[in-house]
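Quick note —
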Amino acid sequence: MSIFYTRKPFVTESTMLTFSVFVASFLLFLSRWVVASYGTDVAFGQFLFHIQVGLAGNEGADAAVITSFLKSVVGYTLATTLIYVALRVFIRRKSAHQAYKALKALSLVFIVFSLSVATLNLNLKDYIQTKFGADLFTALYQSPQNVELVSPTQPRNLILLYVESLENNFKDIEGQNLIKPIEALPGFHVSGFRQAPGTNWSIAGMVASQCAIPLKGFDPNDWNVFKQDQFLPSALCLGDILNNFGYEQIFLTGPEVEFAGVSKFYNTHHFDQLIGRNEVKKFIKDKDLFTSWGWGLHDDSLLDLAYDIAVDTAKSSKPFNLTILTTDNHTPHGLPSPRCEVQERKTSIEGAVKCSSRSVGQFVERILKNKLLDNTDIVVMGDHLFMAIPEQEKKFSNDRTVYFKYVRTNKVGLARTDMTHFDVAPTILDSLGLMKDNTQKFGLGYSVFAPVDNYLELQSKNLSLEIISPSTRYDALWQLSPEQNQTNINK
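Predicted structure written out below.
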């Protein structure tokens, strides 16, 4: 017997090839599904973020989204891999060496093709570019801790209404103004609201507009950060400041509040009540009203509830902040309420936007007419641009901006008509009379009611990809202070 022997490799070439085909198939079908469901502008950071929030953070996802994912991604991936394995087994049994070589070559071509398509569809090129960009965030970020605040003689209430995917393009979709009821509302409309990197999905838009910073996915070595109970615990946000001034704070939305870390964010930043699907269905029994995104409450019913909450809360001696997020305009086709007009329920996203806008207009008009709510600021804005899928893109112009209107404020006029999500929080604080000097920088933003030198130059930096490049200053906002760590331990 020879004293020499050759060990079999732990992983054979055929096993590695099969695994590679599986991974390539998954990425190919995943990237195609992302484009078909959310359009071509989905940032890889957004995709990464939703992986990192884990199963708990995605439990409230829409059932149609989950079904579509299982069919178009998981199903097609398994089918492709099984077909490949079956072909390989058949060829091996026939001892057809030339055929095996051809299958191997074809597999390699498929893997390269799939990775190329996935890189394009998931905008991986932009993500890689940010990894090598300069730390622009640290250079531009001004900690809100340094902003001088004052107590107003008469605190004003706040209603901050995020309307799903509301953008200015909806004023002219194939000759139709789908948001006419919102356009008819009084107030100051900021027409040049540009969407910066790290602000292009719902939780990112809310974080950016309340904390004046972008939201981005973590690098693999930092994934455990999101497992903590706190969401950006060292960031000083709108909710933290209003809490310090004695505001009662309520967040209201149709789907479950746990989705995408929404509840973590609002709990971390001092909201007193979070009301979503699970809380609302305890006293609204009509199941037909819970067919919006994530089986949540439709916008018309949600805004009826919001009005009742606003009136009831206004009776307290404390000022309040009622923050609302609607969902009926959700990509790709919208989910109009059963109470919308028949034609609106048949016309995809156009009908959903038209119906939801009417509900928004009616809600705001009711607030404006109620004397009990006279001392209330009202903001109506899109959480982000609509995620148009390829067949819808031709309906939108190339110049796309988020909708923003300050419906009621004590301010007398705008200083400019350009802004980003980062300007929303300082704008609100300015309007509420809490900023000692409204030209102060808050995070990455400035109040639109304040004159700012070289604003467009500053804005162009906020709009660059480098604003979400690696940043030690940004990472520190996710770190718990020693006191916060002790609080977590004691829970």
